[in-house]
Amino acid sequence: MVLPLVPLPSSVTESTGALSLTTATRIIVENDADAAASVLADMLAERTGLRPAVTVDTVQPGDIVVRRTTRQGEKYSLRIGEEVQLEGSDAGLFYGIQTLGQLLATDGEGGRLPHVEIDDAPRFSYRGVMLDVARTFFDVDTVKAFIDRASSLKFNHLHLHLSDDQGWRLQIDSRPLLAERSSTTAVLGRPGGFYTKDDFREIVRYASTHHMVVVPEIDLPGHTHAIGLAYPEIVEAPVMNDGLLAQSSALEQPLPVAGEPYLGWGVGHSSVKIHGGATWEFLRDVLTELAELTPGPYLHVGGDECLGTAQADFDSFIERVTALTTELGKTPIAWHEAGSAQVAEGTIGQYWGSTTPAGTHADDARRFAERGGSVIMSPSNTAYLDQKYDADFPLGLDWAALIDLQTAYEWEPTTIVDGLPSEAILGVEGPLWSETIETLDDIDQLIFPRVAAIAEVAWSPAETREWVSFRDRVGALGAVWDAAGWEGHRPTEIAWSAR
């Protein structure tokens, strides 16, 4: 039997037999595991139609025991025999429930769980997905649905790309014109929008209940055209580049014009005024409010594709903005180009280059580790969830690569940047940029099933990962996604189960 486990646990031992879940099944709570027991009861009710009683009692055959431990980290153990024994910290219990949900087969009268012993822990501490809400705005419910999908695969960070040339997406009390003037549109003239502070707090709260940390990004000093709609005094006039001109012509998209919403998706033309006093007053206001809203340890400050900014000015800006972020009590994250600068000690780099680094990309990434930081691996030709599966796929772009499921799976984070110690890799992130998507269905089409491949790269031991095994397991997992209504793309090379 192929167990539909993705990401693959550290240790799995199968045995014969199965445990049936019936109306007599109970959830036995031990050591204050009430929150996890409630999550499990909700999942079982949704999947089987049965809601087990949650109680503190003597364990009987057929029961599910949920035991909270005081050990730190995300480890858990799951034993399924005459009863179920699930043990872990708060996060570990949550991840164990996701594993149990993958194993659960329903038959209309309850459910069945195979006899198995699992001991599990993640390879990397940072396992992220990114949602670009700047180019296309997605409401709070859609972000929550994205969290549901990601957390089911044991991702623990949600990177929200909150600003770009096409729009600004967060209420800032000290800078009210951002919501009033910079949030009204999106790419190709789609409807705009922004999150109120209460909206953002609700996203953070919901993410926390799914053991995900929100990582907000304000992209700087480039990707800032929308800021100029509200505060033109701090933004430079657009600087055209050959790539922007060629893309605009090929796609019949407008070029950026100062003071007008930018509806295309070309990059590299915008910048804040690097040395302006008003710029730094603005940034202190914005980043202070964002830090106050964000309970997690990170603020992402961008740093990519500043094609019209002189290198010395860019380096000066990055040095200053990472220092400001540190001063506000947060660890800065920046795209790998920022490694050219003297980033603040401990700044984390996010590598988005190819698995075969070009130009200075590898050097830039290494410098984060040299300055006491670490690196998140997001190679664009394997981990970018917005790229097309094949040339004919109706959604997505293809500037980085055509990324089929096997390509998304078969890469190793530690072999990309020569000289970067494996211990300096904080983790893995799969970004979803939103130029071509508008709905939750569109999101599902691009992330499923590739997000499962990224999840396994981030969680499972490198020595156990193998394409044929993953192909079979993800095919069996498709029925779980179907039951949840997460239809997505179903590549024909996978034997999808209707279990």
Describe what this molecule looks like in 3D.
Keywords: Glycosidase, Hydrolase. InterPro entries: Beta_hexosaminidase_sua/sub (IPR025705), GH (IPR017853), Glyco_hydro_20_cat (IPR015883), Hex-like_dom2 (IPR029018), HEX_bac_N (IPR015882). This protein has two domains: 11-120, Chitobiase, domain 2; 126-484, Glycosidases (TIM Barrel, Alpha-Beta Barrel), CATH 3.20.20.80. It is 32% helix and 19% strand. The chain is built from 14 helices and 18 strands. It has helices at residues 34-48, 90-103, 140-151, 177-181, 197-209, 225-230, 242-251, 277-293, 311-327, 361-370, 405-409, 440-447, 450-459, 467-484; strands spanning 11-21, 26-30, 53-55, 64-68, 76-80, 84-88, 105-106, 111-120, 126-132, 157-161, 163-164, 167-168, 213-220, 298-302, 331-335, 348-351, 375-377, 425-432. Strands 1, 2, 3, 4, 5, 6, 7 and 8 form an eight-stranded mixed sheet that branches. It has an eight-stranded parallel beta barrel with strand order 9-10-13-14-15-16-17-18, surrounded by seven helices. The longest helix is centred in the C-terminal third of the chain and has 18 residues, at 467-484.
